[in-house]
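Quick question, first post here. What does this chain look like in 3D?
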Amino acid sequence: MKQDQTHWRVRAIAIAIGATLFAMLTLAPLHAFAVCGDGVVDSGEDCDDGGLCTSGDHAGEKCPAAVDGGVDCGEGATCQPYGGDGCAANCITESDRAFVFDTTASVAEIQSQLIPIPFKLNGSQVLTTSSHADADGNYAVVIRAANVHISPIAVAGLKLCACVRGVAAKTCGGSPTGRNCVDDPSVCQEGEGACIFVNGPGNTASGTIGCGANGVSPIDVSLTRDHNTHKDSPDPDPDCTAAGAQVEGPAAKHPGACNGPTVAATSGTGPAGAALLLNSLGITTITDGGTCANETITKICVGGSNPGTTCSSTCVGGASPGKACGADSDCGAPPNQGVCTSNASVCTGGDCKPAKGDNGVACDDDDPNQAAPATVPLTTGTASSTILHANNTNATIAPGIKCGAANCAASVTGQAFNCTALAADPTKGVGGAKLGSAFPALDNATLGDLVVTSALAAVADKAACVGDCDGSNTVSVDELVKGVNIALGLADPSTCPAFDEDKSNTVTVDELVKGVNNALSGCPS
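> Answer (accepted):
Ran it through. Tokens below.
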């Protein structure tokens, strides 16, 4: 089974986000008086370390010439600032906020034409945001690829182990709709633009949390893909040459079908705390029976003409015929022991290697044949997806339409961030937020066409412990003294923000009493 048939076909998705949405996500300059990305720290900026040229002869290079090692991008080219390096894309210093998944609410679901298959998501990521809001009330946010830690997902129903990784995506032209070039910049053809980062160097995601009066607009994203545009009458693309379209080859499930491009529609306005990001993930699957267990018996072809094809040795005869094996001893005990027979001959020109790498651990950097990334919207609004002519039939997978006995699980709604909590502590404040995505995936080898949804919910923040200045989860006598000094005006509130529960920049008698109670009885759990 070839890998490009067993993973969820996400790497070929071209998302027509549109110029307006992309411009919003990449964060235009703050205002007319400060140009973020010019290498000069202007009034209203904490920092400005430039960015990368987005086009021209110097596309992808550090800019502007005013910064160390920088260049002049050239006439008509833009120097785009990115975050993740200590200076956010809105030229405010950055801080890290741990986003630990709430396992009761973090769920992925794959919706086939007949049945949904849900499974829990475990892990965490880190949101690197501007440490405070900019003049418009917005927080610039990125997620570093190295800070995405999603546990292997055992999909027992499909007998697969799914691996989800953050990837610093690069495309021709740097847009989410561009051709993937993360491993080979030479694929970019004339007119497509140079191979540059989508979300900035090292970043798997980038976007905005809107805590200003206008929130975030648009916030809801719907992605639609037609499995075969030739089924429409009249045929909108008889030669299947539209940007992002592709013809299924002779070895595919539906030879000659024109898979249309993925089309995005955006709408709605999110409240304060709404967020919209572009998220680049690589998703691969390992056909290990759905265990994700540590082992080196499951093998795939690496290199050659059949990369990703299963080449595991199997038992012949004995008590366990067909069982994947690494040695004859895996095929039962004498006298009913079978023989472990190699299947490596299917790897024409390639090598048969453990699908989980030499260390046998699923979903780590040691794994071969890792998938190229796909970039999809991640939102606190509603994300939905539709597949027309699903499985090359007249069926549709979409919200509000029956998939088997129930409505299709083809949309997910997130939950906005708490702007007060974000402002109160630059290292916390994400608790209770939920980010959702939905995208179409065609021709899964087992279930056919799928809409894949996911919800990433952060565990709720712990109740604040008034008076706990050092974050030790206790209140000491010294900390009580600090609270009294702040209340008397003898110390600044910044010396112990934990005493200023209502963020009034003062400490009241009620707050002192809460601090004393926490010192006597312990902090809230």
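The CA atoms of residues 475 and 488 lie 19 Å apart.
The chain has five helices and 32 strands.
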